[in-house]
Amino acid sequence: MAERGDREAFVTLATNDTYALGCLVLGNSLRQRAQTTRKLVVMITPGVTQPMRNQLARVFDMIYDVNLLDSRDAANLQLLGRPDLSVTFTKLHCWRLTMFDKAVFLDADTLVLQNVDELFDREELSAAPDAGWPDCFNSGVFVFRPSEETYDSLLKFAMSQGSFDGGDQGLLNMYFRDWATKDIARHLPFIYNVVSQAFYSYLPAFTQFKDSVKIVHFIGATKPWHHPYNTATKEVTPLPETGHNKDYLQIWWDIFMSFVQPTLDPSLVSTSAPVLASYHMTLFAANHMLFSRMLICVYETDF
Amino acid sequence: MAERGDREAFVTLATNDTYALGCLVLGNSLRQRAQTTRKLVVMITPGVTQPMRNQLARVFDMIYDVNLLDSRDAANLQLLGRPDLSVTFTKLHCWRLTMFDKAVFLDADTLVLQNVDELFDREELSAAPDAGWPDCFNSGVFVFRPSEETYDSLLKFAMSQGSFDGGDQGLLNMYFRDWATKDIARHLPFIYNVVSQAFYSYLPAFTQFKDSVKIVHFIGATKPWHHPYNTATKEVTPLPETGHNKDYLQIWWDIFMSFVQPTLDPSLVSTSAPVLASYHMTLFAANHMLFSRMLICVYETDF
Fold it and tell me: Membrane-spanning residues where (chains A, B) (predicted)?
């Protein structure tokens, strides 16, 4: 019989090279910082380049190729005139990972601060409340049981009901609609999915509980890789008005610089792959970059 | 045996005439709009004037005088050097309303949109999650059982532990600390305490569930009475950047103009009582008023 650690996995998703970068930091946070004993899986779509796939293979035990849509799904979606559900469906592929008994999904923009292997003691579907509407769970972190049956059922549900927010969160909340009222054990404590801007709305609670935060989630349009990082001082400078917590951004960058950057495939730092083209840049370029396709904000002070 | 409606009550608190105005609208929302069958109680401190007491007596079944501090509490607080806890303690007085078997506390800046008498089927302590940190409950709406024993125990706890946010919410969350993990029935659905700015953080959920919202809570420094109201058009104009939902503000003002304003004691519309001194004013004055002690923003277009 296989060890429990082989039958349980953390799963994430990258739809392009930029989010793959998030996955690399997330994977390293699970391995290096949180010392997980479980497997790491990354689901990728064709939008992820071959050099980035090689990079992901250094950190993840399994790379699972998914299409934005199955051909079967595409046909159905076309019939229903709902091509917008394709992105929603991508995350649902995680239920097809039936080589695992149980799994924990983590968005590519999450970061694990402390070991969270105890999450595998929870049942499907366990998730933390969404700060915006706490009777909904946030689908950036959830415990699930891979099952083809559940996958098919979710797909059917999606095609008949759609998603009230156009994304996976609305869909999963409608499918697992008794989450808010049925079983307190399926409510993960908020420390497993703290929005990095939480302290803006209720600072005293953040102050009171911050030492117990285990997973942080950089929700919103600005991601950790958008904030300028100074290679001389090794400090990140949070972009104003994003509300991101500097301590969390610093941890993200520390992991990136310690474990991801040193082993980066050289092709990813060339113009052919835009992701890291801006790796060495001036502050001006770093700011400009927010409006371009270049995505990493590292600048050196000796320019 | 007394009817259940006599042994159960909605309870609110006014520490000055301005918040008493909120209580008047809240009380009318419970009676006129939500058609409650339960008793209405307002706790008031000496900061509420006699004319306003008379006004409250028209709506509430019971006016319960409380001091910001008992003399006994004052002595203890002085010993502990924590005079800041006095405001926190004021809300705790609700546990002394032992003429009732069960009660629902509502902050003066809440508004009841639909009948919520079913809340009396819940047990102490039931409350809805706080959007800022959803493992804490928001103490603007909660179900409790009046009990001198609980009151004493809360008081002792407050004096030994203090409150992590300096207010009643931090204190009650520490005292009822198993709320987040013990019993899903003590989690009131969010529709019983929706922050009026909720749609800013997760608009799709607000859109999906807005028809079921039962209680709205105008948290933050700007209250419904701060927004300018035009007596000619009978419309409120939400102050920019407060994020308050116009529909909710309009309901608040409709209740104020229909049930509170017509019966206002004349002394409350004179300069001797500042609360309603600005009742008829120009838009300029209405805006200026935000920086003054005058509190109601009604203006007429024919000035």
Answer: none
